[in-house]
Structures are given as structure tokens and as C-alpha cells.
Write a structure and sequence with these properties.
Elements (H helix, E strand, L loop, with lengths): L8 E5 L4 H12 L3 E6 L4 H10 L5 E5 L5 H15 L4 E4 L15 H11 L1 H17 L2 E6 L10 H21 L4 E8 L2 E2 L14 H17 L6 E2 H12 L10 E4 L6
Parallel strand pairs: 1-2, 1-4, 2-3, 4-5, 5-6, 6-9, 7-8
Bound molecules: nicotinamide-adenine-dinucleotide.
Nicotinamide-adenine-dinucleotide binds next to helix 1 and helix 4.
């Protein structure tokens, strides 16, 4: 797998931490020229880690992908830096709050859609001219098994949107050589986040609602456990690679048997 992404330009969003970080470093280690995109400034240090590890050919870009301008600027930067784009991997997202739907305030519903649907919708649109100019390419969207789960209905709806846009975009652009696929991770163990999902922090009540979601997620798996970051990164790298060249329009559940 060492040269899996040799000669490919890969843009990874949400690359500063978690699944996106693992994916971006994995693409770089497999020979890709990789743009690490994130809202967090320290994404530059993460891209430098890849350089430090001898992968070379990585750089970073700071953008707020909840704005269309942010998505457009990030993808334009990749073209300026590397001369084109072959693969876009959309990792930005994540439930901000866990609570019964009746407890969500309207602004909190909007925030979940902005975080977990719009960055993917915008980046998919902004990358299309570049993929078409290249004669094709691949988009991998990171969805979630939370399309069926408790305590985060707006996030579930956002990820249902990601699944729908994956299928529809794949159908529309397949003949132009563009593959669009998604992975749907389940609960994933990761080190404490440098950037929390919710900057305000959780109240005791919110932590209890979170625990209910964690319990439901664990019980819904056949394996009765969370996955690891590596178990999420590997299928995403496969979907992005040419080994998956006849897979398009589908969402791969990566959730220990829970299909979401
Ligand atoms: N971790 C899990 O248990 C889990 C489970 C199912 C699905 N997922 C999905 O996997 C993806 C990655 O999850 P994670 O837990 O690794 O993420 P995370 O919350 O640890 O990291 C998300 C990254 O995205 C960046 N980001 C957030 N908003 C942004 C914005 N507006 N513009 C640019 N960058 C922004 C953050 O700075 C951060 O680096 C998400 O789409 C999430 O919904 C995660």
C-alpha cells in the first residue's frame, strides 16, 4: 500500500484531528500530495508531521468550510499548489450536542446542519470543476451510522443528507469519470480532542444524554464495542484508492455490524 496514492493530489478536510488527521497522514504516507484543510491553525503542524515523517509533498490551508467561500478557497489553493485535484475526502462534521430532539433550540438545529452537512455539500460543489478539468476523480464523504440513533436527530438528518448527496452526485457524474462514495463510521475511540465539538462544554444533564447515546451505539453493534481510529481510516483510504474503482454511489457502514 506504500505507493497507493503516488501521483495523486488529495485534499482532506477536517485534517487537524481525529479521523481526518489519520486519513490525511495515511494518504501522505502512501505517496499522495496532500492538502490538509481545517479551521484550526494547528493543522499546519499536522501537515508538517507528515513532512517530518518523510512523506513530503504536504501542505495545509486554514478555512471555515461552513462557508462556501472557505471551501472554494481551499480547493483553489490545492490547484495552485499541486496543479490539480484527484481526490477529495470530506471529514469535517461531528455532533455538537447530544440531547432529546424536543430539547434542541432552533439555533442549535441549524448549527448541526451547518457543521455536518454544509461543508461536504459545499466542498463537493467547489471541487467539481477541478475534477472535470482533470477528466475524473474521486470524492469520499465521511457520513455516520447515526442516521439511525438517539439524542442527535439534527446530526442524523445532516448525515442522511450526506448519504443522499453521495448517491445523487455519483449518479449524475459517473459518466464523467467521477466516483462518489461514503463511509459511515460508528462510535470511534480517539484521544481527547484539542478542539472540542462544543466549545461551551457539556452540562451534567448533557453528559447523561451523551451516555445514553454511547450505550445505544455500543449495543447496536454486533461486536459490542467502539471502533478505533485506525479501523475508520483504513476503509476510507481503500474507498479513495483505485482499488475501489468499481464502487460508486454507495455508503459503506464501518460500525461493527450496525448499518445505521
Ligand atoms: N468520532 C466518531 O465517533 C464518529 C462517528 C461517526 C461519524 N464520525 C464522523 O467522522 C468525521 C470526523 O469525526 P472526528 O470525531 O474525527 O472529528 P473531530 O471533531 O475530532 O474533528 C473534526 C475536525 O474538523 C474541523 N472542523 C470542524 N468544523 C470545521 C469547519 N467549519 N471548517 C473547517 N474545519 C472544521 C475541526 O477543527 C477538527 O479538526 C465527522 O464527519 C464525524 O461526523 C465520527
Amino acid at each position: 500500500m506504500k505507493n497507493r496514492f503516488e501521483g495523486k493530489v488529495v485534499v482532506v478536510t477536517g485534517a487537524a484531528q481525529g479521523i481526518g488527521r489519520g486519513v490525511a497522514l495515511g494518504c501522505a504516507a502512501a505517496g499522495g500530495r496532500v492538502l490538509f484543510v481545517d479551521r484550526a491553525d494547528f493543522v499546519a503542524d499536522v501537515a508538517a508531521e507528515a513532512v517530518g515523517a518523510g512523506s513530503g509533498n504536504t501542505t495545509s490551508f486554514v478555512a471555515d468550510l461552513e462557508t462556501y467561500e472557505g471551501a472554494q478557497a481551499a480547493l483553489a489553493f490545492a490547484v495552485e499548489k499541486f496543479g490539480g485535484i484527484d481526490i477529495l475526502i470530506n471529514c469535517v462534521g461531528g455532533a455538537i450536542r447530544m440531547r432529546p430532539y424536543a430539547e434542541f433550540e432552533p439555533a442549535q438545529i441549524d448549527a448541526e446542519i451547518r457543521r455536518s452537512l454544509m461543508p461536504t455539500l459545499y466542498a463537493c460543489h467547489a471541487v467539481l470543476p477541478h475534477l472535470l478539468a482533470r477528466g475524473g476523480g474521486t470524492i469520499v464523504n465521511v457520513s455516520s451510522n447515526a442516521t439511525r440513533g438517539i439524542r442527535r436527530v439534527p446530526y442524523s438528518a445532516a448525515k442522511g443528507g450526506v448519504n443522499a448527496l453521495t448517491a445523487a452526485l455519483a449518479m449524475e457524474y459517473g459518466q464523467q469519470g467521477i466516483r462518489v462514495v461514503a463511509s459511515a463510521p460508528g462510535g470511534t475511540l480517539a484521544p481527547p480532542r484539542r478542539i472540542p465539538r462544543n466549545a461551551v462544554g457539556d452540562t451534567e444533564k448533557e453528559q447523561a444524554w451523551m451516555n445514553e447515546a454511547v450505550q445505544q451505539v455500543t449495543e447496536s453493534t454486533f461486536l459490542k464495542r467502539y471502533g478505533s481510529l485506525d479501523e475508520q481510516v483504513a476503509p476510507i483510504l481503500f474507498l479513495a484508492s483505485d482499488e475501489a474503482s468499481y464502487i460508486t454511489g454507495s455508503v459503506l457502514p464501518v460500525a461493527g455490524g450496525d448499518n445505521g
